[in-house]
Amino acid sequence: MPPKLAEIVDEFAAAPREVVLEMLLEFSDAVPPLPDELRGHEGMEQVPECQTQFFLRAEVQPDETVKTWFDCPPEAPTTRAFAGILAEGLDGATAAEILEVPDDLYSRMGLATAISPLRIRGGTAILARLKRQIRDQEDGRP
């Protein structure tokens, strides 16, 4: 797991339940704005498993690091928090590191005790689609 993401996971896992929601809200503000060329979600994939509209894009760079973009309305702070966690935790990570992120990431963070299973399922789908996009790009390389 990328070191930044591992640190975030450990912080959440160690936090008291009553603080977890506050921590999530902080990450909902960590989602960088989309560049102009992605504002209409052109080239982004929608994650239908999320209760709110959520779009993402992963792009493997020539140096094998992955650039990610996420978009979700501000009225969905929990879902935005998933994006913020990934945006911060995966910043500078390689494709191989991201593909090694455990699929049960949000459960490992202890979020199952603080938010609904439906939201956990949405967060898990975000990670799965991100990893699929990376695998697809890796498979298409010479």
From TrEMBL:
Belongs to the SufE family. InterPro entries: Fe-S_metab-assoc_dom (IPR003808). PANTHER family: SUFE-LIKE PROTEIN 2, CHLOROPLASTIC, SULFUR ACCEPTOR PROTEIN CSDE. This is Cysteine desulfuration protein SufE. Residues 10-133 form the Fe-S metabolism associated domain.
